[in-house]
Amino acid sequence: MSKAEVTNLFKKVRAQKRAVLTEVEAKQVLSVYWIPITKGLLVTKKEDAIKAAQKIGFPLVMKVVSPDIIHKTEAGAVAVGLKTIEEVLQAFETLQKNARAYKKGAKIHGVLIQEMASGREIIMGSTKDAQFGPTIMFGIGGVLVEVMRDVAFRVVPISKFDAAEMIHEVKGYKILQGVRGQKPISENAILTILLKVSQLISENPQIKELDINPLFVNEKEAKAADARIILE
Ligand code: ADP
Ligand code: MG
To answer: Exposure string (b/e) for 196-213, b if CB count within 10 Å is 16 or more?
Structure first.
């Protein structure tokens, strides 16, 4: 995809009377800005699910892709750590059944067979502030974000210096450096992605909200495992 195709994708979504992009669509947008994402294949048939699983490799993750389901876990539409073809076939049925039970008549684009990422979970996001306009947010995933609201905010666009400051100012920074003998994660990978997200937001004012949750980061690299984009 190119930047022009991003504009077309937004138009297509709008024409379908939608404001929310699916995970697959949101990740296509991230890819245009060179933000690394987990490998994934969207399938609609069992035979293709088997082939996709063999290509992606085990363990893997499966998710229902539906424009009518925004919070996939809540709908029982995510399965992680699948280890065999049998589990893949079982999940192919169960996840779609759960999605349909959660939302009657939900349109299903398919089932995403996805590489399982490892490392520590962080989150990045963007919302528009009434006074300052588009902002960018960074935090460490899990309870730190959900309960402690341990996040850093800046107005976009941000500089490399701002990005570094954001990473260092969250209280959970120690977790990134590694506790109890863990190796430190790549701060540079996070910093690079923050700058790319800032650019993506600056160049696309049609985006009302963006969420990368989670982004997995380890000693070498970072990868977005889930993404959500909401249009104006
Ligand atoms: P939701 O729509 O509920 O936010 P997610 O795609 O974020 O769905 O999946 C829910 C959780 O499953 C994530 O927060 C993460 O912990 C785990 N998960 C999702 N995708 C992956 C992946 N590719 N690798 C490892 N864990 C994953
Ligand atoms: Mg998520």
So the answer is: bbbbbbbebeebebbbbb
| Binding site membership of 20 for ligand 1 (Cβ less than 6 Å) | no
Q: What residues form DSSP beta bridges with 207?
A: 231
Place of tokens 């999605």: 99
State if residue 228 touches ligand 1 by the CB under 6 angstroms criterion.
Answer: no
Whole-prediction pTM value?
A: 0.96
Backbone angles phi, psi at 16, to 5 degrees: -85, 15
Ligand 1 pocket, 72 CB below 6 A?
yes
Please count the other Cβ atoms lying within 10 Å of the Cβ belonging to residue 38.
21
Which tens digit of pLDDT belongs to each residue from 57-115?
Answer: 999 999 999 999 999 999 999 999 999 999 999 999 999 999 999 999 999 999 999 99
Residue nearest to atom 15 of ligand 1 (CA): 214
